[in-house]
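so i finally got all the pieces together for this one. its three components total, 602 residues if u count the protein bits. some of the lines might not be protein, just check the labels. i wanna see the whole assembly predicted at once instead of chain by chain like last time, that was a mess tbh
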Amino acid sequence: MHWVELFLGAMLVNNIVLARFLGVCPFLGVSSRMGTARGMGFAVLFVMTLASAVTWLVYYGILEPLGITYLSTMAFILVIASVVQFVEIVMKKFWPALYRSLGIFLPLITTNCAVLGVAVLNVREGFGFVESLVHSLGTAGGFMLALILFAGLRERMAETAQDVPEALRGLPLSLVTAGLMALAFMGFQGII
Amino acid sequence: MKLFQERLWAGLIKENPVFVQAIGMCPVLAVTSSATNGLGMGLAVLAVLFCSNAVISLIRRFIPATVRIPSFIVIIAGFVTIVQFVTEAWTPGLNRSLGIFIPLIVVNCLILGRAEAYASKNGLMASLFDAVGMGLGFAAALTTLGGVREILGAGTLFGRAVLPSGAQPALVLSMAPGAFIALGILLALVRVVQLRRKGSIAKTGCGSCQLCGEDCPSAGKGAEA
Amino acid sequence: MGSTYRPALILLIVTAVTGVLLGFIQNLTAEPIRLTRERERAEALRRALPEAETFRPVEGDPSWAVVSVEEGLAGDRLVGYCITVDAPGYGDDIRLLVGVDGEGTVTGLEVLSHAETPGLGAKAAEEPFRAHFRGMTGPVEVTKQQPGPNEIEAISGATITTRAVADGVNRALDVFRQVKGGGVS
């Protein structure tokens, strides 16, 4: 029950984009088409889970025993950059088909603040290893859900883009739409 | 001094990182529930940007292209950690309200973007001017957005009541959805002004930061998301 | 060989220099950070139990399920306790510091951290709401009408938060009775 709560809490109640405001750039940037949104969603799922595992091990295996937890921001961002590189190399070699569909998103993830954000949150909340994994899976699921829903909305909106006043077209209207989605997601608050 | 004025003007108005370029969106949305928080975050980013632009401009000739971005990130992470220490020691209230967004300044694409686009190509003084201009532009934008949300959402500004006592503030503006909606409307207003004055909308995007994906000019496509 | 290893070496140098400098600065700021934390804690304790001059931690029984218990002393005389508890609120846990005098009356309530909705539940952290708890002896009940003694009027739109705070205060009062009755060793 605890795991389900943690998972749903991370995915719906504290949705990474709509409630915590992490990963807003890719959310706005790669959501104009459903296909790319799905690709980005899976790439983030992959990297976020792996990066959470590695950052957790680095924090509790190296930084804490040595008493240098103040280096965590630096260590985490280096770990994430390396994980992304590593995933890219492995994917290219063993799953070339997957690499062709997700490859272009991987470099963009290094500076995706959602990935670093989850790593920092895992430590701040004092999660154990498995808790961290469940939390990051839920968070990544929430990111994917928000991204795909948003891409669906934007595909529809693009059909009638000409009716929108010029100043509102594009980013401003996307932001207002995201705000309405966030309003809907607030309905999840208190379910857990 | 001419260069200083030019960079200041660019950062505050012409290429304002938030209202014109629309970069570094996560903290822009997250910490602007009040003007005080917006200003605090803006100053933290200004401090990091100032230091990182200076160091990167100084060592730019020694860093080979292949490890340029990782090196920049390490340097930025260092200054972010220092800002974290300083806020924790002397402004604990601010540290609490900015919370996780202080370490996340590392991945704010404004800072990496300026390092890449400006400091790695220009001298020390020019890079410092650029940092001041862009940093102040960012801080001004965050304070404006925070102020608007605070007035309309809580009826206060910098914690002091400003609305007449009968007025019921619209709570939603201080919550998460209000952040998106308020920023969207402010961006639209900026574009109205741009359209009036120049007849076209300035391109948004992440500069040379790789964060935004396919819709970025850096990814070779139009910026109109 | 130089051309392949040089970039890696330079990255390593940059990282090492940054790391070492951070170590220095961490050393410089560690003391101010510790002092700030202690001062904030001391101020919260003093607001919760104004009568006490010094505070001393009480070794706890883990079954209390509280964060910490401190006894407040004026000179050598025991004047009350400060009990820190976590209460599950609407957003996340609300961490409360409850001051209780020797007779079991609430002397002050501090909200140390919370994640309640701004404008609604977040009002629980504001002084006017917290002040209502002063003088209560518990058990505290939540009401939507005019509150009587030991009753707290629910914050409109944030009944769950109000209930969480009331539960937290009740738990602190329970702990007070255990500490007092159980003869703390």
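Chain A has a mean pLDDT of 86.
Chain A touches chain C through seven residues (CB under 8 Å).
anyway lmk what u think
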